[in-house]
C-alpha cells in the first residue's frame, strides 16, 4: 500500500494527507494542494469499471487518491453522497445526441453538475474532521457565480460541526439560482448578496482566507475557515470519476473498444471540470483532446491558443452565467503539473495578481498536445439550442450548448472524428427563460414557474421536483453587503450562535 501526499503549487514546505488537504481547502502559502503523483489505472482496471455501478466506480478511483481514508469510509461517503439524492440510478448517464455523446451531470438535487462534487465533499470533510481530531467549528466560505452556492448549501446544510456562508453577485445569477439560494433551510447556513461581480466575490473570499488577523479573531470564536470552491481538492477528486465512468459506459455499450481514445468537450469557467479530465488522462484513461469551451469571457480560449493569460478585458454577463469568469483558479494546478516548478507557478500567480496577466507561452507545445479551445457568442449559443432541438429533439441548457457548438467546431476544423463526449453541466430547467427564447418562444412577463411548464410542454422532460417546489418555499436570506463588507459579515456569522 502506498500513501498519497499533497503539497502546494507555490512551493511551501508542508506535505499533508488528503484528509488535511480537504479540511484546509487552501495551502498556507495561498497555493492549491496537488497530489505528489498521478496514480495509474491500467487498461484492465478501466475495462472492469464497465460492469460496475457509478458508486463502485467512484470507490475504485477515489481510493487511489484518498489513501488515508479506509475503504469502508470511502464507500460510506460515496453511498451517502449519491444513493438517495440523484434522480437517475446511473447518476451520470451518457446519451447519444446527434453525432455526439452527451454526459449528463445534472441528475443531483440542484439540477447542475456541481452536485457531482458537492454531494461528496461534505461527506469527505466530516470524515476528515473526525480523523484529524478537529474540535473547532469549520466555517465553509463560498463565492459563487450561481450553481456552486446552492449545491454547497444543499450538501452542507445541517452537517455536523460545519457551518456554511455563501456570497453571490447581487443580480449576477439567474432568478432560479437566486431563489434556490435565498430559500435554503438549515441552522448552519447564511447567504449574502455582494454588490459586485463574481470575481469581486471570489477575490473577497480569497483575501479573507489569507488574512492572519481575521484568522485570530475567528480562532477566538472557535472557528476555522475552509473552502468548498473548486480550489478544494475534495471538489476536484470526485470529478475525475465521471470521465472514467463515461468511458466505461461507452465500453459497456460497445461503442468503443478498450484502448480507443475519446475526446471530451467541457464548458469551462474555473477550469475545475476540465482539469479533472486532464487528471483522468494522466492516470491512463485513453483521452485524445480535452476541448475547452468558453462563452464571450474567452480568457481561456486565448490562453490555450497563445499561452498568454490576460484578464484585462471587459467582463460580459452572458446567457451561460456559470462560465462568466475571468480568473480561472484551477488553471494554477495545470501550470504546476505541466512545469513541476513551484517557483515559476508562484511567479506567474504574482504577475496575475499585480498586472492582470502572465506569459506562459513556453508551454504552448504541451498545451496544444492536450487541449483545444474555442468560444461562442450568445447568438451562436441560442442558434445551437434551436438547431440541436430541431435535429434531435434534445433540449440543451445554455452552458451545454456552448460546449456542443465548440465540439462541432473542433471536429470541423481538425477533422478528428474520434468519439466525442460533451459534458452537460445543467438541466435546461435551470435556465428556462434563455432556453425558451432560443427556441423562439415568447417569454415576456412570464414567471419562472410558468416558464418551467412551457419548457416541459416543449421538451417533454420532467420538471425536477426540487425546482418546482421553489414556488412556495419561504425566503430566508435577505442580507446584502458591499465588496469591502464581506469580512465583517463573516465575523458576524462566526460570532452568532
Ligand atoms: C460551474 C459550472 C460550469 C463551469 O465549471 P468549472 O469547473 O468552473 O470550469 C459550467 N456549467 C455550469 C452549469 C456550471 O455550474
UniProtKB/TrEMBL annotation:
Protein name (record): Threonine synthase
Family per similarity comment: Belongs to the threonine synthase family.
EC number: 4.2.3.1
Tryptophan synthase beta chain-like PALP domain: residues covered: 106-355
GO cellular component terms listed in the entry, alphabetical order: cytoplasm
InterPro entries: Thr_synth_N, Thr_synth_N_sf, Thr_synthase-like, TrpB-like_PALP, TrpB-like_PALP_sf
Known cofactor(s): pyridoxal 5'-phosphate
UniProt cross-references to SUPFAM superfamilies, sorted A to Z: Tryptophan synthase beta subunit-like PLP-dependent enzymes (SSF53686)
GO biological process terms held by the UniProt record: threonine biosynthetic process
Organism: Selenomonas flueggei ATCC 43531
Domain of life: Bacteria
Any one GO MF annotation of this record: threonine synthase activity
A Pfam family this chain is assigned to: THR4_C
Domain Threonine synthase N-terminal: 6-82
Keywords (A to Z) from UniProt: Lyase, Pyridoxal phosphate
Modified residues (N6-(pyridoxal phosphate)lysine): 114
Lineage, top ranks: Bacteria, Bacillati, Bacillota, Negativicutes, Selenomonadales
